[in-house]
Design brief:
Length: 565
């Protein structure tokens, strides 16, 4: 038997890290030399596993980067030299990428996930219901968009190539399969074929990103529609034209309006798919703790304790719906009267200051709260913050371009003053809302805030109880007792609930108006005349989908803030 001093000397190196502690607990009857070998062996295995994971992420990231650069070079060449590289060449490249991504998606469902121990963990924070619902909604709208595109091309089949019908058909199949796979497997933490899975996810992400870039920059369909409308006007006036005209004017009108109305949804769908695929890529090879694989005890969403917020939010929703319907009815005619633009921007100029003040008040209340900051590493929350700040750049970019165009041309007219005020207030509201939502997401929710002394009691019970079932029942009883004892709403929590519900309804209203209607930013003609049709088309198609995504993402973040209060 070794002396106590010798045992302490041999056990000291084993307590320098957590792996050594695990070896000391499991190998209580081994010698110090054997423990040291086990520590070195386990540390080497963990280090190799981390290095392999980093190498796989690096290689798959470089693969996506090269695919994006190749596709970006094709699209830029099409824009600046459409004789050497045509739109058909870009479609062929995207069709090849969609086919490869489609094959990988089918293999992932039929091969990878069916292997033993393939998906041992599922991330509870990934793919919330509002993300999957948006994925399904925008995916369905994008499929309908391609159906309208096929119908429009079929009505012009006498002067178009039949090969143009193949590309929308491929996109319909790709979007349908991708939506189904992401809906079903967005929470997976794959543990087998990790490098191949990472490469497949990055290839699919790069394909969606290139689809988004092409949708933002390609205005060929819009130009074709405008040329056909101009040709119809010339034909009615008695002039002959060489433009390809539709065989059935009524059917073409349906296809044309459906295509123009659903066009922004394709860019929205690509952005959401990129976000979901990136989360899945981060979760490949990730091992979660046993308690983290189950959903936390989040309370259900209800409006108890909130009165004024829902009332004011419903008032904004009703007013916004009325303005939206009036503007859409007017937009169905040949021209839009200026008073409807004035009504549209006046509504925004009234709602945005109220939202900004509510966000600033909520941020101030967050500073007075007793809840501590949640400093634990959470990849999903980090991605939510990045997406929230990145998506805000869309509407803010359009606002800055509008400010420059107005100040440089006619800043003294009433409509231009309203557009200028709208642009400035929109920038301020995005900044204030980002501060409020990000601060709320980093606050520990009420149901997760442990009372003082609870950690010590858990440690004592961990050594005293031998059954994990008894420990889980004890933690559940302690959590329920804590929630019951702190269920009374103080004024700060009540104010946060009121502000969150008001902002949720306001963001739903501001999401609905640009998502389903004609866009005044493109129809008022001021910025289009200042920057030119093609430049302003790219700016609007870049910023508006990000703005719609921002409003939708803000609703999800505000729901989390509401539940956390």
């Amino acid at each position: 038997m070794a002396s106590p001093e010798a045992r302490e000397t041999g056990a000291a190196p084993a307590k320098e890290n957590q792996v050594a502690m695990g070896a000391e607990v499991t190998g209580g009857h081994t010698s110090p030399r054997q423990k040291s070998w086990l520590v070195r062996h386990f540390s080497l295995l963990l280090r190799r596993d981390r290095q392999a994971q980093k190498a796989g992420q690096l290689f798959s990231g470089l693969l996506a980067l090269n695919v994006v650069f190749l596709g970006g070079a094709f699209i830029c060449s099409m824009i600046f030299n459409n004789v050497a590289v045509t739109l058909g060449d870009v479609w062929i490249l995207l069709a090849a990428l969609k086919a490869l991504s489609l094959l990988w998606l089918l293999y992932y469902v039929a091969g990878t996930t069916c292997r033993p121990h393939a998906v041992l963990y599922r991330d509870p924070h990934a793919g919330p219901i509002w993300v999957r619902g948006s994925l399904l909604l925008f995916g369905s709208c994008t499929i309908c968009l391609n159906v309208f595109r096929v119908g429009y091309d079929m009505s012009h089949i006498h002067c178009k190539s039949q090969l143009e019908l193949i590309f929308p058909a491929i996109e319909i199949i790709f979007i349908g399969v991708q939506t189904w796979v992401l809906w079903k497997h967005c929470k997976d933490c794959v543990q087998v074929q990790t490098n191949f899975t990472r490469c497949g996810l990055m290839l699919t992400l790069a394909t969606n990103l290139l689809m988004w870039v092409l949708a933002v920059t390609n205005d060929s369909m819009h130009r074709e529609i405008e040329a056909e409308l101009s040709a119809l006007m010339e034909k009615f006036s008695g002039n002959d034209t060489n433009t390809c005209l539709c065989l059935n004017a009524t059917v073409c009108e349906v296809f044309r309006k459906g295509y123009l109305m659903l066009y922004p949804f394709s860019t929205e769908y690509c952005l959401i798919c990129c976000a979901v695929l990136f989360v899945m890529w981060k979760n490949v090879g990730r091992r979660l703790a046993p308690h983290a694989s189950a959903h936390p005890g989040t309370p259900p969403f209800h409006l108890l304790g909130a009165i004024f917020g829902p009332l004011l939010g419903l008032l904004v929703l009703v007013a916004g719906t009325c303005v939206f319907v009036l503007f859409q009815i007017e937009a169905s005619g040949p021209t839009i009267a200026r008073q409807y633009f004035t009504l549209y921007y006046a509504f925004y100029a009234a709602v945005l200051p109220a939202m900004s003040l509510a966000c600033l008040a909520g941020t101030a209340i967050h500073g007075l709260e007793e809840r501590e900051l949640d400093t634990l590493k959470n990849p999903t929350r980090s991605l939510d913050v990045v997406l929230l700040m990145g998506a805000a750049l869309g509407q803010m970019g359009i606002a800055y371009f509008s400010i420059v165009a107005i100040v440089a041309t006619r800043p003294h007219e009433l409509l231009n003053r309203l557009i200028l005020a709208y642009s400035l207030l929109l920038i301020l509201q995005h900044i204030a809302q980002n501060l409020f939502v990000i601060e709320g997401l980093h606050r520990r929710p009420v149901w997760e805030a442990a009372p003082e002394g609870l950690g010590e009691k858990q440690d004592a019970e961990l050594h005293r109880r031998g059954s994990l079932l008894e420990l889980g029942q004890g933690l559940q009883r302690a959590s329920l007792a804590y929630i019951h004892s702190y269920s009374h709403l103080n004024w700060k929590r009540r104010a946060l609930k009121e502000i969150s519900v008001f902002l949720i309804l306001c963001n739903v209203t501001l999401w609905m108006m640009p998502a389903f209607g004609i866009h005044p930013e493109f129809e008022n003609g001021l910025e289009k005349d200042f920057y030119g049709y093609r430049t302003w088309f790219a700016i609007v198609n870049f910023g508006l989908p990000l703005g719609v995504f921002y409003r939708m993402h803000s609703v999800g973040g505000l729901v989390e803030v509401y539940l956390g209060a």
